[in-house]
Amino acid sequence: MTVSTEGSMMTAAALTNDRWKALDFSAPSADAEEPESSVLLEYRDDGRIAVITLNRPHADNAITTEMGDRLTEAVEEIAVRTAVRVVVLTGAGDRAFSVGSDLRQRNAMTREGWLRQRQAFDRTLYTVRQLRKPLFAAVNGIAYGGGSELAQSCDFIIAADTATFGQPEAMIGLSAGGGSPVFLPRLVGTGRALQMLMTGDPITAVEAHRLGMVTELHAPSELAAAAERIARKIAGNSPTAVQAVKRAVQLGAGQPVEQAIAIMMDAHWRSAIHPDRAEGIGAFNDDRDPVFRDADY
């Protein structure tokens, strides 16, 4: 069967266009006005709650090199503020949490520039994962590529019921490198993770919740309030105990059972001799709210 050159070009164009339709986003406009700060950091509840907002809504919160650097700085600032007891990470606007790396910026990069950005993003994700304070993601919309991996790097995820999660890296010639090949199988199972990583097809927040990747679903208009409720609940608990149990879970993951229990017991005994333990039990018996000390770090 003979196909004309013109017809072949038209078919190729149609296939190319169809390829990206399921992702529901495109590269940001080259002349879009950038906000004064690509990452916002706000302290609430007398400094006990920190809220980090990815702030490039015009670009579906796509992450540039500068935005990644600012996110690293924000997390490092939070790490040394002993008053902060919990961190919420979310995205600006109602469309996207983050679609990952800004592909328009990457399009003009040299190989060296791309590798430098990759190293910078590795530092960002490492800084997020290593934060001793609890940090959870409130995913308000699309979370693709590095955006999904950023959410997976948090302690847990709550989401708007309209959100979607996807790993489209293979569609643009990349193997995912921000954590999803490690974390996604643990969250949704190996087969589902491989399907997502190999096809690039996204899943809905409803499906992510069914699989255990997302802990709570909320209407988009109610997500911020739900995040605030969870943050206040965590902030009202002993920060020393919360940080200890986070470390026990992190360090015990993948270890033999007795080794994991030894890690757990080390955290438990440290909390048992801490003043917060006496304060918490005293508050229970006095039927009052406990007043816990800030964690040492």
Concise summary:
By secondary structure, this protein is α/β, with parallel strands linked by helices. 49% of the residues lie in helices and 14% in strands.
Tell me the strand percentage band. Answer: 5-15%
User: Helices and strands, in N-to-C order?
Assistant: HEEHEEHHEEHEEHHEHEHHHH
Total of helices = 12
Quick one: how many beta strands?
10
Q: Give the end-to-end Cα distance, rounded to a whole number of Å.
A: 71 Å
Strand order of the largest sheet: 1-2-3-5-7-10
Helical content, roughly? 40-55%
Low-confidence stretches: 1-15
**Structural classification:** alpha/beta
Rg, rounded, reads: 21 Å
Characterize the overall form.
Answer: globular
What does this protein look like?
With 297 residues, this protein is α/β, with parallel strands linked by helices. 49% of the residues lie in helices and 14% in strands. The strands form two sheets. A six-stranded mixed β-sheet has the order 1-2-3-5-7-10, sandwiched between helices. The N and C termini lie far apart (71 Å).
